[in-house]
Specification:
Blueprint (H helix, E strand, L loop, with lengths): L2 H5 L4 E5 L3 H9 L4 E5 L14 H13 L3 E6 L5 H4 L2 H11 L3 E4 L2 H10 L5 E3 L8 H9 L4 E3 L6 H9 L6 E8 L11 H6 L17 E3 L7 E3 L13 E3 L4 H6 L4 E4 L6 H20 L10 H4 L9 E2 L21 E11 L2 E6 L3 E2 L3 E5 L6 E4 L3 E3 L4 E2 L1 E2 L5 E5 L10 E5 L1
Parallel strand pairs: 1-2, 1-11, 2-3, 3-4, 4-5, 5-6, 6-7, 7-11, 10-12
Antiparallel strand pairs: 7-10, 8-9, 13-14, 13-22, 14-21, 15-20, 16-17, 16-22, 18-19, 18-21
Helix pairs in contact: 2-3, 2-11, 5-6
Length: 411
């Protein structure tokens, strides 16, 4: 076992929380910490995000579960936004936030002035790609750096070896990749007027493009020869098969991308990485691989084709043929109660007698439940559950399934 591995007793699993529902899902399925945004200064304006009252509630829920809350303040604000920062920083500190995630040096200094007791984590937007930069941020008072996504294992290990052990290192291990270096993109601003560096990216990198020739106005040429027209559309990252190498190179916190994604995504991805990490620490080995059923869970969420990003030294590549997602499963319902020979669900999408439900309990492998009969909330036998949020009861005599567990069905 390397020296870097012995520095960390156990890595942190850091999950996205786009709203209070997703925060609860992250906690239920095993996150050690969540990251979220207030209604200002966060890089995901499209997410619901948290009002001040919701932030107070979320922090209390997380702390009661033994988890931490990191608040993003990682946009690149303009002059007109600076005056609003002190109040935002003070109110967030009063709510009990465990850290700010910051990209801008001026914002960092304001945070140190107006919320001096809240640690500062340097955002991936800052593009920390070498140990010199990491050390300078540490000297300025940062307690953690979130690395640029473009680094390979060897570069991360060298950075870890040449920075103080007190400086924590966070890195993305799963989720969407940006075609621009560390997310520093101007495409959205140029094409739609929506500033990606202030949290409002329209994701034009996911669009379908054609070539035009300047003297042939209105004539479009397909970009296609064994490739496709989505020339900027990056694959998603998935590093669940590489837990030992992620630990060995010295990463403190494994970060899951996806604050704008669904509660189900948050739950399923958190659950898979929670089990993979716990499986590794149960018997640490450089040869550890999670049970095949665990990575398979990541194919049950909406995703683009997976890659290992830059960790192995190769570029993540583009999904050229299409701009869409792989969607093979849908959420059928949520577990409301389990006991007395019944499983009670709140329906989310239609399912019927004859279907097989795929149930995702926290911290456990999925279980399959063939539906041979089911009843509505009044006890009437029904052949299908067509109405959203309707109560459905299914005979069940297996192990107890916790309330809030997701129930899926294959498309």
């Amino acid at each position: 076992m390397s020296d870097a591995m012995t520095k960390i007793s156990r890595v942190e699993l850091l999950s996205p929380a786009g709203d209070i529902e997703r925060l609860k899902c992250a906690l239920l399925y095993g996150a050690d910490a969540v990251y979220l945004a207030g209604t200002s200064f966060g890089m995901r304006a499209g997410a619901n995000n948290f009002t001040h009252e919701q932030l107070n509630e979320g922090v209390k829920l997380a702390h009661a579960a033994g988890a931490k809350v990191y608040v993003t303040c990682n946009t690149i604000p303009r002059n007109g936004e600076i005056d609003a920062l002190p109040d935002f920083l003070e109110r967030t500190a009063d709510a009990g936030a465990d850290a700010f995630i910051i990209a801008d040096i001026g914002v960092m200094r304001l945070a140190q002035k107006y919320a001096p007791k809240v640690p500062v984590h340097i955002s991936t937007q800052a593009g920390v790609a070498n140990y010199a930069t990491a050390n300078e941020f540490y000297n300025m008072g940062a307690s953690r750096v979130v690395l640029a996504r473009e680094l390979c294992f060897e570069e991360i290990a060298e950075l870890r070896g040449k920075t103080p052990s007190a400086l924590e290192i966070e890195a993305f291990v799963h989720g969407s990749m940006c075609v621009s270096f560390s997310g520093r993109c101007l495409l959205s601003s140029y094409m739609t007027g929506r500033d990606a560096n202030r949290g409002d990216c329209a994701q034009p990198c996911r669009w379908k493009y054609y070539l035009t020739e300047e003297k042939r106005e209105g004539q479009k040429f397909e970009i296609f020869e064994d490739n496709g027209t989505h020339i900027l559309n990056s694959r998603d990252m998935c590093m669940i098969e590489y837990i030992p190498r992620l630990v060995e190179c010295g990463i403190t916190s494994f970060k899951i991308e996806g604050r704008a994604k669904s509660a189900y995504y948050t739950a399923a991805v958190t659950n898979a990485y929670r089990q993979a990490i716990d499986g590794y620490y149960a018997a640490p080995s450089p040869h550890y691989k999670p049970d095949p059923a665990i990575p398979e869970e990541l194919n049950k969420v909406s995703h683009r084709e997976y890659s290992t990003g830059f960790y192995l030294g190769n570029e993540p590549g583009q999904v050229l043929a299409n701009g869409g997602y792989v969607r093979e499963y849908k959420v059928a319902g949520m577990v409301e109660d389990c006991g007395g020979g019944w499983l009670t669900l709140s329906q989310r999408n239609k399912f019927r007698v004859g279907d097989t439900l795929d149930i995702m309990p926290p911290h456990a492998k999925p279980l399959l439940l063939p539906v041979t009969e089911m009843f509505d909330g009044e006890g009437n036998s029904i052949g299908a559950a067509p109405h959203a949020m309707m109560t459905v009861r299914i005979p069940y005599d297996g192990a107890v399934i916790p309330k809030g567990s997701f129930v899926r069905i294959k498309e």
